[in-house]
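User: I'll paste a sequence; please echo it back and then give the predicted structure.

Assistant: Echoing your sequence first, then the prediction.
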Amino acid sequence: MSGEFDASDEAVTKSAGRTDPAAVGSAGELSSSPAPRYETTSDAFKRRFMWRLIVVLIGGMLLDGYILGLIGPVTTTLAADLGLSAAQVGAVAAMALIGILAGSPIGGWAADKWGRRPLFFIDISLFLVASAAQFFAGSFEALLIIRLLMGIAIGAEYSVGWPMMSEFSPPHLRGRLMATVNFAWYSGFLIGFVIATFATRAGVSFKIILGSSTVIAVALLLGRIGLPESARWL
């Protein structure tokens, strides 16, 4: 298992943007001497990098399933507290999906134009702000806008996370990792649904239940600090 998560030398070394001067001879040719002081190309670094990338990418998909799983169990208290009709409750529940539909193509275009890394931070930052705003959402209109922004951020995540996973992951693990990303969505939905169900029964406010996704978003934002640009985009 030690070498199973090694990323390709091209992807990790190019993304880090470092060159070992000890590996360049006086004639300007690359020598075969190792460069142990540069951890960038070491197996240990590449394993840590891949594990970190896997966690933040899978976490993004889990977060998507989580916010969609939360909304179902809170619809009753949502309607009662805000005085919403069935149509309005349905609109709030569907708004994240509409945002995903709009955010995916926009995110794909932006990632091709400005790179994966900037959008990787922008989408989770937008999600974090919108998710935290749910703690203070006290009207139908506010929830519509907030859930739409969250959906747009998740849609952008789709257009960035999947390419980064496929571009950085080793060929012999690529299929399994992509399948794990899919599994993370269903896991997140289940976790969100269970938490929302029991929290609703315990009398917890719908604002706190919906806003709980902020905790995951903060962790993902911190985990993405320092991640390099995709070598394929460069």
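Residues 6-10, 16-33, 35-40 have pLDDT under 50 and may be disordered. The radius of gyration is 21 Å.
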